[in-house]
Amino acid sequence: MSVEERCPLDDVLDLLRVRGAMMANLRGSGTWGLKLPRTPHATLHAVTAGTCWVRVAGEQPRELLAGDLVLLPTGAAHSLASDPAAATRSWASVAKEQSRNPAHECVVGGGGSSTHAICAGFTYDHDVAQPLLSLLPAMLVVSAQTATGENQVQTTLRMLRHELNTQSSGSATVIDRLIDVLFVQVIRAWSREDRGAGTSWLHALRDPLVARALALMHAGPATPWTIDALAREVSMSRATFTRRFTSLVGEPPLAYLTRWRMDLAARQLRETANAVSSIAHGVGYTSEFAFSRAFTRLRGVAPGRYRSEVRRRSPLRRTPPSH
Fold first, then answer.
1. Would the N or C end of the chain have less CB density within 10 A of its end CB?
2. What value does the mean pLDDT take over residues 120-130?
3. Would you call 40 helix, strand, or coil by DSSP?
4. What is the pLDDT of residues 83-116, one digit of tens each?
5. What is the dihedral of CA 179, 119, 165, 107, to 10 degrees?
């Protein structure tokens, strides 16, 4: 794949190892409200019928219409309710009271207009959550009203709703895979919308020159990049390039490059038996000592210890994050 064809978003999503699972097939009617605490996971709610309101501390309440999705990428505490002023009960207590059928149904309220929402939770590798998740807003909404033409998010939602309603052989596996796909599609759909100025790694990908610099670093992490070399590649002065990159991405170019190299090295430490010296060379370090020092500075632990610790942990499992 050429640098022009490479998208850093693909690389980061691959490293994140996002795994989604159903939390509930929510059916609310009349007046109802659910309160979900802050978690270390991402949460997604997709309204497939009716309307509801999502509330996050510090944000204006947002009405969700049929076809709208809200993603809380860093697990902010929030509530879902029939209206902005509705009283709420804890998600955990409501879920505990109800015996769920194979469709993960959770029924709240009683009488009146009804709302149906698909609720999912996502685990991911927190070690590589930068830069994608940390610079996203606490509440990320993708509206069905802004979509034009064929909408991949809505197509996936229709497939997901079908699997939940039919519960055919293999539906559980299909549902998990569709939820994984939905996460990527929501990030992609949101990144295409015009969100104005501000620091965001996804905003940076819409800037052709900064995006090319990111792609160059992702395509050749072992290349001995300097500010001058990157600036030449994107036909900018050193000062202008540094200022523009830092403003959009949220950190200077070489700081980003170092962290990206450590993310790649961490994956090799987790998933391979390659020697530390080999891993160091593969991400651009001729000295194992220099690599170990950089890794320890960013990860808080030496490469060898990181490898032994991470292998003692249980692998990510496809279970709904606890709320």
1. N
2. 80
3. coil
4. 998 999 998 888 777 655 555 788 898 877 899 9
5. 170
